[in-house]
Amino acid sequence: MEFEAVIGLEIHVEMKTKSKMFSSGPVSYGEDPNTKVNIVDMGFPGVMPVVNKQAVINAIRVSHALHMSIDDTVMFERKNYFYSDLPKGYQITQQFRPIGSNGYLVLNTSQGEKKIGIERLHMEEDTCKQLHSWDFSLLDYNRAGIPLIEIVSRPDIRTGEEAAKYVEKIRSIVSFLDVSDGKMEEGSLRCDVNISLREKGTEKFGTKVEIKNLNSIANIQKAIDFEISRQSIILDFGGVIEQETRRFDEGSKETVLMRVKTDAVDYKYFTEPNIAPIKLSKEFIEEAIKTSPELAEVKLERYKKLGLNDYDSSLLIADKDVSNYFDEASKSGANPKLLANWVIGDVQSILNKEGISIKEFKISPSYLSELVLLIEQGKVSNKQAREMFAKMLENPVSPKKLLEESGTSLISDEETLKAIVKEVVDANEQSVIDYKNGKDRALGFIVGQIMKKTQGKANPGLASKLVLEEINRR
Amino acid sequence: MRYMNLSIREIHDAILKGEVTPLELVKEAIESCKKDDNNSFEYICEKEALERVNKLDPSKKDSLLFGIPVVVKDNYSTKDIPTTGSSNILNNYVPIFSSEVVLRLEKAGAIVVAKSTMDELAMGGTGTTGHLGITYNPWDKSKTHLIGGSSCGSASSVAAGIVPFSIGSDTGDSVRKPASFSALVGFKPSWGRISRFGLFPFATSLDHVAYFTRNVDDSAIVLNVLAGRDDKDFSSSFKPVEDYTARLNEPVKGKKIAVIKEIVESISNVAIKEAFNKNITALKEQGAIVEPVSIDSKLLKAIYPTYILISCAESTSNNANLDGIKFGPREPGESFEEIMTNTRTKGFSRLIKRRFVIGGYSLLRENQDKLFVRAQKCRRLIVNAFNKILENYDAIYCPASPTAAPLISGSSDTLSDEYLIADNYMAFANMGGFPSITLPLGFDGELPFGGNLTGKPFDESGVLSIAKVIENATGLKDLVAKEGK
Predict the structure, then answer these.
(1) Taking the domain B8-252, which CATH number applies?
(2) Is A315:A352 a contact under the CB 8 Å cutoff?
């Protein structure tokens, strides 16, 4: 029998706002446990939630990027359940009126373009991180209260590849909008998969299986591919799919049973009485969108207009921080093409070699653009620029200053250089004759003599040109 | 010479004149706390109060609350001072922060001398259900009548002259009802007027900060200290505060006061009827327009069940952090579920668990529409009905209770089906967030009873000015139980 997979994804994105969703506690990652918390995060009796405005702005921006309608009334509900990782005994979330609804994303897959519907986007708060040992459990409240965006797709996804592309696109959006680091391995982007199979051509949904514990985009694809084949085999042999939660096992590359789902938990949702509905003005929403950082697609368009080719542009936007570095550097008016070559060439190779991100890179965008401008103005040769680049890695100073200090600025003044050229040509009449007799190498020799005389400071391009003019005159 | 039976303003003047020092006042209050035989206190802050009074900045002595002892209900978080909400589940809980109300009192120079008893977690109206047992009414020497709750200890300590004012909380009528039973002024300002940060939530949408004084002027003085926006409480209002003492002597002439016919008619107590009618006559003589107004009695009868459903539902969620893992004395268990179940089973009394069951049941998916959501719709209808009256009147005035303090033996907090309109209507002011004040109206034998005046949201000044006229008409102010009327 031929089956079709029906897949929906639930993505949780941790926002990197300064403070938490409902408290002034700091948002952090990788800090010592229970050092980034306050009384609100810990749910002390009597504390009250205060809505983080930046989190609302972020949610509006992501909703907009996902082509969703944005609710101009922000409301929160309590999701009530007893669990060890839940400080207050309830989670504040948006159950009844998500801030974003009815959106879509268009994916470029190997089978062509595919539109995936998105049902809802809502804000909520994260829970504590739990660390289980054999006879005790530890709670880290640092994560408690960190703002989350949950994005729920419609069951429009059919393959592991589509799922991976979908998550990659969401990751790019939240990352370019500065909403989140979007790192699956650090848990700042988490994805649960709902998957069922049905006979191709039928409409009715099969029994749904949930897959959790997916820590990379590659694993999402692998888990789905595995699950499709697992369910296909069961169905082919006349078996029944159980409604259950499975997790992806990295070692075996298989999904394994976590728990069989019983009736859905009743979370007894009701409106959070501490937060009266917040009316968002049209201006507030428009401003949030207008001031939003650029999405990858928008940058790509802009790079095209700057004259960069598709390949260079795609390398720049592969990392949001790299493209931001490029944008910052190009503010000086340096030639974009030349600048891009430096960023995706010399800069990138240092990053790769040292295994660092561009945020840790020592040379500031403005210094790099200064260097490129020096090349453009003929004040330094490419070779010199590379040497200066190496020096700047050691000691990040302004290239202009570096040039002044070393006194190696190229002689690009035509009159100065002309005099030197005349002198050298006079002293090497034989070479002039050789050149005129067809020995091209003789030209190189004369230029070499000029470089020698100027201790390498002559602008080599200009020197060649002037030597030719001088020879032709004789 | 005793000072704690005087008004805030009298004590303040005595300090300024140098007749008494804050230290002497605190010592007097602490001594009275220790002698208290009404079970008013959870914790007497002797050491803490003496430390604080020694640190008072003399340059702030113009503040009316400078050096004045105050008692705070045990559901207000107080830094380094045990706070139990009169529940075993919070035994030994010592908060690491103070509620905004306490911070404002301290900033004004007031000295917290004790934390008062209450009905467990503020759920109850009798003053008999806290983990320390029954709190008695100082007006009743036989100790057979209750004082009412849930702010029982805060009421008894002011009624007994231990302190001139005290802080309570009011979710249904938890300050305004005990005020009626103990000859006090109990004021619950508008929802959002006073920050609730640090107040243990019972039913968030109905909870209000409220307090007891022995006269209307003092009530305005305390509001001047407590009112105002607090960024930590998202529900606190940005509305500018006023000087709430400014309009206290405004004449009542031409002001319109509505009396709810159905409430008054449901009362049979002769003393209350007579005192109320006499008071109305006095108001009319001063030019007030007092008129009977009708509200569908079905709606009035719906106030109590509506209140019960909403408050129980919200309380289940508000107390979910008390699970033995995050807060509360942890009971053993093999799993986190067992720990939570064992802790909550042991920590909460039967009455509290009963409320949680009712609340949880009304929130279940299959019941929400016919219980919780219906209660919310009902709340809207009730509030609309009272709002409609307040469109045409400056205030609503009725007796605060159908009797003076009832017998302890006759009381029960097991949600009796005796839904007397007059006994439970005051929760309408919590539903609508209206400013509402109870003040003494008369005595039935030895026991006091009060009247209740409710106004438009954020018209605290207007409500206080009419209350002052009522107070002048009855002549009942600065009443202290031990000394009789």
Answers:
(1) 3.90.1300.10
(2) no
Chain B residues closer than 8 Å to A82 by CB: 320, 323, 337, 340
With CB atoms and an 8 Å threshold, state whether A45 touches B322: yes
* Model pTM score: 0.89
Apex A127 CA angle, A244 and A320, nearest 5: 95
Q: Which of B32, B73, B86, B87 is catalytic?
A: B73
Q: At what angle do helices B350-363 and B372-392 cross, to 10 degrees?
A: 90
pLDDT tens readout for residues B103-117: 999 999 999 999 999
Would you call B7 a catalytic residue per the annotation?
Answer: no
The whole-angstrom separation of Cα B104 and Cα B112 is 11
Query: In this predicted structure, what is the pLDDT of residue B179?
Result: 98
Q: Please give the C-alpha separations between residue B9 and each of B20, B62, B223, B245, B248, in angstroms, as whole numbers.
A: 13, 11, 14, 12, 14
Does position B299 have pLDDT exceeding 50, yes or no?
A: yes
Is B436 considered catalytic here? no
Contact residues, chain B, for A264 at CB < 8 Å: none
Q: If you measure CA to CA, which chain B residue comes closest to A138?
A: B325
Shortest CB distance from A49 goes to which of B234, B314, B365? Answer: B234
The CA distance from B232 to A195, in Å, is: 43
Structure confidence by residue, pLDDT tens digits, B429-458:
999 999 999 999 999 999 999 999 999 999
Given a contact cutoff of 8 angstroms between Cβ atoms, the answer to whether A73 and A275 are in contact is: no
pLDDT for B264 equals: 92
Inform me whether the C-beta atom of residue A42 falls under 8 Å from chain B C-beta atoms: yes
DSSP structure class, residue A360: G
Looking at chain A, the domain(s) classified CATH 1.10.10.410 span 414-473
The CATH fold of domain A414-473? Arc Repressor Mutant, subunit A (1.10.10)
Cα B165 to Cα B5: distance, rounded to the nearest angstrom: 10
Q: Where are the domains of chain B?
A: 8-252
Q: Is the complex ipTM higher than 0.90? A: yes
B277: three-class secondary structure by DSSP: helix
pLDDT at A427: 83
Q: What is the pLDDT of residues A410-422, one digit of tens each?
A: 776 777 778 888 8
